[in-house]
Write a structure and sequence with these properties.
Blueprint: E1 3-4, E2 7-8, E3 12-14, H1 22-30, E4 35-37, H2 68-72, E5 83-87, H3 90-93, H4 95-106, E6 114-119, H5 122-135, H6 143-146, H7 149-157, H8 172-182, E7 185-190, H9 191-196, H10 198-210, H11 217-220, E8 232-233, H12 236-246, H13 250-258, H14 261-275, E9 276-277, H15 283-304
Parallel strand pairs: 3-5, 3-6, 4-5, 6-7
Antiparallel strand pairs: 1-2, 8-9
Helix pairs in contact: 5-15, 8-15, 12-14
Length: about 325
């Protein structure tokens, strides 16, 4: 187990791209008694260590933990024998800054941390991120406008949350390479693999973490299938339920005080799975940004030595 003074810190980090299955993986791993995931999902600690952001966009990034004592407190309920983990999607985008902060906090032990990277077709990821913001009324523009490079650049200059950099979050090659170069043990999965064979994919991740080559298949079959579902409300009733459970209101405020964060999020995710439906991506959206990712995809294939042909449209 990795330590800092007398306090414990994560043994592994999930640094996957936003909207790539990291929320599901967080809850899948948290299900196992030998794993303790941080009390807050996505504390973004290593992205903003001693440098708490003050974003000026309507979505300003919640749950940021920037002080070491507050971060260590996320694991105060963990038992000594449990493996500690954390998941923050900003760590891939802020790869240089996050790795530098990991080195500062862990010192010479930093290479021992296991890194799990979740990836998704970058075009699909951008579409999903935009729809995620729109369903919370955090994105005022239409999708084709929101992915305009000039719009994104202006927003970044104005201090908007970096998750509005819809294109930059999908530039995976340098992001992934940084982690491969700096850490001894890195495991990569794709959201497609997680959806197609959840049991096999999570089983591989558990064996990567514990190195015990055990078959967890029976336990994995009991898990809920999806978390952080993308989409739009199915009908008017679904819209009402969505507003009650996900937007600011007295009921949600009371739940925030009375219900533990992990339980609350599991409930919200189950509700989302029942009331949301997919929002189909227009071909014009795909065509507009695919060309910018084409070289990235081929370079990533060579780096990881794996087939990413399902991401290609040419």
């Amino acid at each position: 187990m990795l330590t800092l003074t007398k306090k414990r810190l994560p043994d592994f980090l999930i640094v996957g791209a936003a909207k790539s299955g990291t929320t599901s993986l967080y809850y899948y791993l948290d299900h196992f008694d030998d794993v303790f995931m941080s009390e807050i999902k996505e504390p973004h600690f290593f992205s903003f260590y001693n440098d708490r952001p003050e974003f000026k966009s309507s979505e300003s990034l919640n749950n940021v933990v920037s002080e070491i004592g507050e971060y260590e407190a996320l694991y105060k309920a963990a038992r000594p024998e449990q493996l500690l983990g954390e998941a923050s999607t900003s760590y891939l985008y802020y790869h240089k800054k996050a790795i530098e902060n990991i080195q500062k906090v862990y010192g010479e032990d930093y290479r021992k941390i296991k890194i799990i990277i979740g990836l998704r077709n970058p075009v699909d990821r951008a579409w999903s991120q935009i729809n995620h913001f729109k369903k919370f009324d955090h994105e005022p523009l239409e999708p084709l406008e929101a992915i305009d490079a000039n719009v994104i650049a202006d927003r970044m200059k104005q201090g908007w949350n970096t998750y509005y950099d819809y294109l930059g979050f999908g530039n995976y090659y340098n992001q992934v390479k940084s982690y491969v170069d700096h850490f001894d043990r890195v495991h990569v999965f794709t959201d497609f693999e997680l959806k197609e064979d959840r049991v096999k994919t999570v089983n591989e991740i558990l064996n990567f973490l514990f190195e015990n080559y055990r078959d967890y298949s029976d336990e994995l079959k009991e898990l809920d299938k999806t978390y952080n579902v993308s989409g739009i409300p199915k009908n008017r009733l679904s819209k009402v339920i969505w507003n009650l459970t996900h937007k600011k209101n007295p009921i949600k405020a009371l739940a925030a005080v009375l219900v533990p964060e992990k339980i609350k999020q599991k409930f919200y995710n189950k509700i989302s799975g029942k009331i949301l439906k997919p929002n189909a991506m227009p071909e014009a959206f795909r065509q507009k940004i695919y060309a910018g990712y084409k070289t990235e995809i081929y370079k990533l294939e060579n780096l990881l030595q794996r087939d990413l042909s399902s991401w290609k449209t040419d």
